[in-house]
TrEMBL record:
InterPro entries cross-referenced by the UniProt entry: Hemopexin-like_dom_sf, M10A_MMP, MetalloPept_cat_dom_sf, Pept_M10_metallopeptidase, Pept_M10A, Pept_M10A_Zn_BS, Peptidase_Metallo
Gene transcribed to yield this protein: LOC106472755
Protein family: Belongs to the peptidase M10A family.
Protein's UniProt name: Matrix metalloproteinase-2-like
Cofactor: Zn(2+)
Amino acid sequence: MEAFYTEESFREAVKQVQQFGHLPATGFIDDATKKLLTAPRCGVPDILRQSPRNNSIRANPYVIGSQGWKKRTITYKIHNWPPQLGYNQVAQVLKTAFNTWSEPASPLRFEEVRNGEADIEITFASADHGDGYPFDGQGRVLAHAFFPYDFDSLGGDIHFDTDEYWIDGSRGKQNYGIDLFSAAVHEIGHSLGLGHSAVEKSVMFPYYQRHKPGFSLYYDDLLAMYELYIVRGSFEDDQYDKTSNGGSTTDTPVLPPKKDDSGNICNGYFDAVGLLKDDIVIFKGLLVWRFKDRGILRKGYPTYFNSVFQGLPSSIKRVDAVYQRTSDLHTLLFSGILKY
Ligand SMILES: [Ca+2]
Ligand SMILES: [Zn+2]
Ligand SMILES: [Zn+2]
């Protein structure tokens, strides 16, 4: 009985790996599965959810892994860097990676600190490095990260495996090595509370893929951020209070809110994000932006949302949520429901 049980659970585990890696879920290890099992990837485990309807296991498109940060300004600190990349290069790559997560659809801002404590501590470490999740030498597991507030002070932290040959893929043509930006942008997703996505184009797909220049988040990642920080988000810091960074409150002036910042979604504050066919749409005030999947703005946008969605009551001054019904592909708009 025990042998049977063990074999069953092994087959189930193999099936899960196959499903997440988009291979036929046979439960048997063939060449493609072997290749998948040795492919470079993130060290955070994949989560598969039980589908209530038919009891079969399926991979969610995106997974919220934990609670989100309760503040809008998140600090990070770079403790060390690999020998082949100096501090300046690592700092530049990480800054770009963090900014990917603050534009265009999240209320979060990131600040590097050199002294004192930070929300996200970033270290390059080898083998056993004291957190119970040892690295495995060169290859396979490249990095891992902790969800916000998990394991006390470890919460949000990112560890990169020093035994990888880290490169800055944006400089020159290097065909070997692991691109730090690509790994970092994924790990930051965990630091913000996202789990692995089964969508291959998603940044949160667990297997390493090198990102091209001009990279932006996929809509699956944006929707996860929208759910975690807009629908569920609760912030203890005021959005205009920048004094939380350990400084004395007397020498940093608190700026008054700007009167008119509509017409620009780049400041990070918006009313709603949703899908329209395969495009992502972002609402702010009376305006709507519409992007192709990789964040390219469509022609004619931004424009007034009542010119796109005709026949809306004129009393609607903003859209709080947008949702495309899967049954008939009708787009539903909500106004005045969500408060954040
Ligand atoms: Ca490794
Ligand atoms: Zn991961
Ligand atoms: Zn670690």
